[in-house]
What we know:
By secondary structure, the chain is mostly helical.
Amino acid sequence: xxxxxxxxxxxxxxxxxxxxxxxxxxxxxxxxxxxxxxxxxxxxxxxxxxxxxxx
Length: 55
């Protein structure tokens, strides 16, 4: 079976560019958390109620 060189290069590059699954998961979770926090802040900024009214 012949594997074209371009396929080998792409596969090895993909493997090298990825970190461990644990680090990748932590990164994705952190990004998702930041996104949710940003959305909450934007909603609070746009709402007619101020933060002190929520108490």
